[in-house]
């Protein structure tokens, strides 16, 4: 692990000014989204968010398939700063990706309205056994839902991912949409969807492989599965 971490740290510094965009994935714009993809429906926010991203030197690339439901993976997540680039990218696309928030935050009416506007879903994390089922039930309503999760579960190094996202996708019968935040190319990348088969040992490597070469803000914190993906030999 130490050798892998050192190799990653020597590859790139997030503040490198000689950044070149990846040519592998096309730029993704609001107009590229299909009619089934959950939208925020805000006209002003995409304009402002796009300007902010451009000023920061970031862009969004890849493709979002025309589907109404998916489990969206946000990786790698090694810093609170990640949201500074990720959130504007979502607003710029006008795409609605919901995340889970503690139900106690919704007890204040004004705050609750703000949280719902941001796409945060109330969840009781104290009852762990019901969180997975409650999430599956939300998908089962048939309403458009992109649910964002971070399987690393921490901004620090972790040996393995939390696998709840996978069993959620299987239980709800929805695809998994991996999204990468790459500080080397200054790109938010929407990668290829993975349709879970129920065989987690076969499906996880398909997800890991898509993050190969992605550099987070803090490379030394990169989770072990993604370090292993970077060390694969062609």
Note the beta-strand portion.
5-15%
CA gyration radius, whole angstroms: 18 Å
**Estimated structural class:** alpha/beta
Distance between the termini: 20 Å
Query: What is the N-to-C succession of helices and strands?
Result: HHEEHEHEHEHEEHH
User: What is the number of strand segments?
Assistant: 7
Mean pLDDT: 83
Shape category: globular
Read across the widest sheet, the strand sequence of neighbours is 1-7-6-2-5
- How many DSSP helices? 8
Helix content: 25-40%
- The low-pLDDT segments are 1-21
Largest sheet: 5 strands, mixed
Count of domain modules: 1
Describe the protein's architecture and organization.
The protein is α/β, with parallel strands linked by helices and 234 residues long. It has helices spanning 2-11, 44-56, 82-93, 109-118, 128-140, 164-172, 200-210, 224-230, and strands at residues 59-62, 69-75, 99-102, 120-123, 145-149, 176-182, 187-190. The strands form 2 sheets. Strands 1-7-6-2-5 form a 5-stranded mixed sheet, with helices on both faces. Strands 3-4 form a two-stranded parallel ribbon. A hairpin with a 4-residue loop joins β6 (176-182) and β7 (187-190). The longest helix is centred in the N-terminal third of the chain and has 13 residues, at 44-56. The two termini are 20 Å apart.
């Amino acid at each position: 692990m130490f050798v892998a971490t050192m190799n990653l740290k020597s590859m790139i510094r997030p503040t490198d000014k000689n950044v070149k965009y990846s040519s592998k994935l096309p730029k993704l714009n609001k107009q590229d989204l299909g009619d089934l993809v959950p939208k925020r429906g805000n006209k002003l926010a995409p304009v402002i968010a796009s300007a902010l991203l451009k000023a920061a030197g970031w862009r969004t690339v890849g493709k979002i398939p025309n589907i109404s439901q998916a489990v969206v993976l946000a990786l790698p997540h090694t810093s609170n700063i990640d949201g500074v680039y990720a959130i504007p990218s979502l607003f710029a696309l006008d795409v609605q990706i919901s995340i889970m928030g503690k139900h106690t935050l919704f007890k204040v009416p004004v705050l609750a309205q703000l949280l719902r506007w941001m796409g945060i879903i109330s969840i009781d994390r104290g009852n762990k056994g019901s969180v997975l089922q409650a999430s599956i039930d939300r998908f089962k309503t048939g309403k458009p839902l992109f649910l964002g999760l971070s399987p690393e579960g921490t901004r620090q190094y972790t040996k393995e991912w939390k696998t709840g996202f996978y069993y959620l996708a299987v239980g709800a019968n929805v695809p998994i949409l991996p999204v990468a935040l790459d500080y080397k190319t200054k790109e938010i990348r929407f990668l290829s969807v993975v349709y879970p088969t129920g065989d987690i040992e076969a499906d996880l490597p398909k997800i890991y492989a898509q993050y190969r070469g992605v550099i987070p803000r803090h490379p030394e914190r990169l989770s072990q599965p993604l370090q292993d993906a970077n060390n694969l030999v062609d």
